[in-house]
Amino acid sequence: MNKLKKTAYIGLAVSALALSGCLSSSSSSNRTAPTPDEPVRAQQERIDDGFFVVNEAQLPFASLAAGVPAYDNTSRWWGVLDGAGYRIEVPENWNGHLVMYAHGFRGEGPDLTVDSPPMRQYLLDNGFAWAASTYSANFYDVRVGVEDTNKLALAFTDIAAANGRTLAEPDKYYITGVSMGGHIAGAAIELETQQTANNFVPYAGAAPMCGVMGDTALFDYFTAYGLALYQLAGVGADSFPVPLDEAIEKRDIAREVLWTDYAANKTPLGLTLAGQPLFPILQNLTGGPRPIYAQAFGGFQDLLQGFLGSDGTITGILNDSVVDTTSTVYRFETLPGQTLSANEQAFNQSIIQAEAVPGANALRQDGLRWIPKVNGELYAEIPVVTVHTLGDLFVPISMQQIYRQNLEANGFGDWLVQRAIRAPGHCDFSIAEFTATFDAMIQWEQNGIKPGGDDLLDQAQMADSNFGCTYTIDGFPQEVVRSLMPACTP
């Protein structure tokens, strides 16, 4: 830890994206009755009880640049389709391609809201139409996100016609999204989705950004962090799940034992001798040694500790726990691939493991799994370009490593390009980085120009102090935070 004392650490706020005309319907395609022996999920009860409501006042959106002639004749429509709100924008010189944008996690409230894509100007300037859905439910409901996004894509020409513009069916569909929306984009191009979804769209390419590309492995990670926190503090869990009141008690003890003053300094410099192993444990759980990790460490502790006490059902998306830490290896003295030290062996042998309930997220007969899989088995050979920030500890870059491994195992590795960005937060890309990622996928799909990328499985490359410099494009709106990060050196 001595090297860490030479670096200024910054507590960083984390943003969890997460990030006229009407064609409406009051029906919901997500009301799928359980089989006789299947309990109704908490999420299904929320849907059936009408808990989720489209915030229709939030749907309208303004011209990209008022008074700019190039956008004067752009069509902009919004409305509600089967319980999900939407926005659609079609430039006058539409090129026949439709881009679907999937937003990130919206929390657990009732309001359903929509985002416009960050690369909106690029899309309009290059003739793309785009559409985005609120989805018909909040929580971590990726199944709803995939189905509603695809349903909107398939309704595109009908919505256009209802608003007085006759359009041909798109000749190409693309999908992009952030955070949970990255999971949606990744799942949408899977063979399993083609085989099981109620609504399937044959996307020609995808650009998942800061996405949950390891699907339920994200929740294994949250659980592993909590179990390690308790174990280091000397109050290891006896079983999983840990009841909420007990989890809070253990959390408070961990804050006292592992930090000198948790409220005042959550950074690595604030860790006690007992707490110092948490730094490398979390580093290795999230992708291994890499730039920007140290600067991001403190800013994510509150968020990660907010998942303590979770029961593994992903807040009622499932009826049983899907989390599994039986293959998790906790390292604080060695690197992946090396033999565990004696201390690490003792730690791994003593820490409790969470085991998934068999069939908790099994295949279903009524459509996609409750949490759609990103197996790395594409429905076709299509280009996929992903991008991820190095400091993200909410949806860590390890999700991209899992995705790479899965695609390689299924013979689709040549169809994936991945890029790392030197930023400390979740999905905190500059507009230029959003745009460059999407454009790289488009150039590959339309012109056969395979873009460059980073090797996220090469530990030595990732650990280099300049890793991530190649595709980082500083600019709006990250200038201030980026100025506090370690600079790239010649």
TrEMBL record:
<feature type="signal peptide">
    <location>
        <begin position="1"/>
        <end position="29"/>
    </location>
</feature>
<dbReference type="InterPro" id="IPR029058">
    <property type="entry name" value="AB_hydrolase_fold"/>
</dbReference>
<protein>
    <recommendedName>
        <fullName>Alpha/beta hydrolase</fullName>
    </recommendedName>
</protein>
<keyword id="KW-0732">Signal</keyword>
